[in-house]
Design a protein that fits this description.
single chain; about 160 residues; alpha+beta; Alpha-Beta Plaits; 5-stranded antiparallel beta sheet; 5 strands; elongated
């Protein structure tokens, strides 16, 4: 039953079919070239930022429903967090999440990408306050009644 005055409700997914659902999301962290060099080289005072970011992303995906209002808790079957360095000033983060459930895992993939970027930010904030977390976005999703989605190549 929805609240007619405010219209806030958790969507009833009970009638949806249980299917395999996947989502892939990405985020970028931009920083100075010296900061990126130190991240890549494992030369940060707090430790290995890449390993920490992977763990942060996985943990965040598993906890998404605890802090995203109205998000259903899901039994995640797989969470992957990949970190790469496409240029001298960028950390690229890509996450993949899979479940077999009645609702999709887009929020879990987006949360994982964001948390991974924030973990790196936290580990570097004392040496590079000009960092930025950018372009957190869904890249693709599969499964569900709305069908598959893939972000079109754009600017």
């Amino acid at each position: 039953m929805s609240d007619p005055q405010h219209g806030i409700r958790m969507i009833d997914v009970g009638g949806k079919p249980v299917t395999v659902r996947t989502a892939r999301a990405s985020a970028r962290l931009t920083a100075g070239s010296e900061t990126i060099r130190r991240i890549r080289g494992g030369e940060l005072e707090k430790g290995d930022a890449v390993a920490t970011a992977r763990i942060a992303g996985i943990m965040a995906a598993k906890k998404t429903s605890e802090f995203v209002p109205l998000c259903h808790p899901l039994p995640l079957e797989a969470v992957e967090v990949a970190i790469s360095f496409p240029d001298a000033v960028t950390v690229a983060i890509e996450t993949r999440v899979r479940t077999t459930a009645r609702t999709g895992v887009e929020m879990e993939a987006l949360t994982a990408a964001t948390a991974a970027a924030l973990a790196i930010y936290d580990m570097c904030k004392s040496i590079d306050p000009d960092m930025a977390v950018e372009r957190v976005q869904l890249e693709e999703k599969t499964g569900g009644i709305h069908g598959d989605y893939r972000r079109s190549a754009g600017p």
